[in-house]
Write a structure and sequence with these properties.
By secondary structure, the protein is mainly beta. It has three helices and 25 strands. It has a five-stranded mixed sheet with strand order 1-22-21-20-19, covered by helices on one side. A four-stranded antiparallel sheet has the order 2-25-24-23. A four-stranded antiparallel sheet has the order 3-4-5-6, with no helix packed on it. Bound molecules: 2-acetamido-2-deoxy-beta-D-glucopyranose (NAG).
C-alpha cells in the first residue's frame, strides 16, 4: 500500500518532490562492465545496452539478459559513448553508436543474429571538428540525430561545448556552441530539444543547467534557447555535473547528476517532481527505460563498492519510457494512467 501512495504523489506532482530509491540490478561481482559504463540504450525488444563492456571503452554490450557483446569499434583507439536504437523507413531495427575519440557516429544495421549483433556496421557521419561526440538523441519521425560534446578545461569558454546534427543523408552540421554540453534528449512530440550545459571557473565546476530549444525535427534547426532548469538556483548543486538525460511518454525529463548518485525528474514545465537515488552507484552516467513493457528505468555508473567496475540499478513501474515506444515496443502502463 505504501507503494501506491508513493506512485500517487509522483503522478500528481502537486506535492514536494517525491524521493524514490532504485534497487540493485547488476552488481560488481556479476557485471562484465568497466567503470566508464555509459550510454544506456534500449532496443525494440526492451533490452538495455551500455558501453565499456568487457572493461573495453571501444565495446558495447547488453546489460539485461545474458551479458553479451553488441558492437566493438574496428579501431582500438575508439572511445564509444552514447547509443540509440532506431527503426529505418522499412521498419528494420538499427542502432547509432558515437565515438568521442574519432569524432564519428557508427550505424549498425541489417539482420540481427541470435546473439543480438547486427550484420553490418559502418561510419554514418563524422566531422573532425566535433569536440567529441559524447551523447546522442534522435527524432524518430525524420531519423535525424543530435550530438553533444565537450572540451573539459579549467576555465570554460563558449566553444567548449558542441551541438551537432546529422540528417538521414549522414551529413554532419554544427548547430551551436556552448559551455560544456553532455546530456541530450528530444521530447516525445519532437518539438523540444534538451541539452545540458556546464561551466568551469579556475578548475571548479560553477554551473550546471539544462537548456531547452524549439526544435524543427526535419531540418534540425534549434531556436528560442531558454534555461529549463538551473541546478545552482534549484538546489545549490551547480558543482555536480549533469550526464545522460531521457524522457518518458508524458514528456517528463530524467536528468542524471553524475557524482551524487541521483536522478532528478522534471515535468514538462520544469518543475522538480521526484528524485531517485541509486544505492549501488556513485557516479551515475546514464539511464534508459526498458523491460518488456518499457516501465523499468535502468541507471548505470561506477560501482559504489568496487570503483573498477560498472554497476546498474533499476526503478520499476513509475513511468513508461519514450525511446521504446518510439521503436514500436513496450506498451506498458502505470498507475499514473500513462
Ligand atoms: C580544448 O581547450 C584547450 C584549452 O583551452 C585548447 O588548447 C584546445 O585546443 C581545445 N581543444 C579543442 C578540440 O577545441
Amino acid at each position: 500500500m505504501k507503494v501506491t501512495i508513493v506512485l500517487a504523489l509522483l503522478c500528481a506532482g502537486a506535492h514536494a518532490a517525491t524521493e524514490l530509491t532504485a534497487t540493485p540490478f547488476l552488481g560488481a561481482t556479476e557485471s562484465k562492465f568497466g567503470p566508464t559504463i555509459e550510454g544506456a540504450a534500449v532496443d525494440k525488444a526492451g533490452n538495455i545496452y551500455a558501453v565499456d563492456f568487457d572493461n573495453n571503452i571501444a565495446t558495447a554490450g547488453s546489460v539485461t539478459g545474458p551479458q553479451k557483446q553488441l558492437f566493438k569499434a574496428p579501431d582500438a583507439e575508439a572511445l564509444i559513448n552514447g547509443i540509440r536504437f532506431a527503426v529505418d523507413k522499412s521498419g528494420a531495427e538499427e542502432a547509432y553508436v558515437v565515438d568521442a575519440k574519432l569524432h564519428q557516429v557508427y550505424r549498425l544495421s541489417g539482420q540481427r543474429g541470435a546473439d543480438g549483433t547486427f550484420a553490418n556496421s559502418g561510419v554514418f557521419c563524422k566531422d573532425s571538428t566535433m569536440l567529441q561526440p559524447n551523447d546522442i538523441a534522435i527524432a524518430p519521425s525524420t531519423g535525424r540525430i543530435f550530438l553533444s560534446g565537450m572540451n573539459y578545461t579549467a576555465d570554460s569558454v563558449i566553444g567548449n561545448g558542441d551541438l551537432w546534427t546529422c540528417g538521414a543523408d549522414g551529413v554532419a552540421k554544427r548547430l551551436g556552441q556552448f559551455y560544456r554540453t553532455n546530456g541530450i534528449e528530444v521530447s516525445p512530440d519532437e518539438k523540444t530539444l534538451y541539452l545540458s550545459e556546464a561551466e568551469n571557473k579556475k578548475g571548479a565546476v560553477t554551473m550546471n543547467r539544462v537548456l531547452a530549444f524549439d526544435l524543427d525535427a526535419a531540418t534540425g534547426e534549434t531556436k528560442n534557447k531558454r534555461v529549463f532548469v538551473d541546478f545552482g538556483e534549484l538546489d545549490k548543486s551547480a558543482a555536480t555535473d549533469i550526464d545522460g538525460m531521457r524522457t518518458d511518454v508524458s514528456g517528463n525529463l530524467y536528468v542524471t547528476r553524475n557524482g551524487i548518485g541521483k536522478v532528478s525528474v522534471f515535468d514538462p514545465s520544469g518543475k522538480l517532481t521526484a528524485t531517485i537515488s541509486t544505492p549501488s552507484i556513485d557516479s551515475i552516467t546514464n539511464l534508459e527505460f526498458g523491460g518488456p513493457a518499457g516501465t523499468d528505468l535502468y541507471m548505470v555508473g561506477k560501482c559504489k563498492d568496487t570503483p573498477a567496475k560498472g554497476c546498474v540499478d533499476v526503478l520499476k513501474g513509475q513511468a513508461v519510457g519514450n525511446a521504446l515506444k518510439r521503436l514500436g515496443g513496450g506498451g506498458g502502463s502505470t498507475k499514473c494512467g500513462q
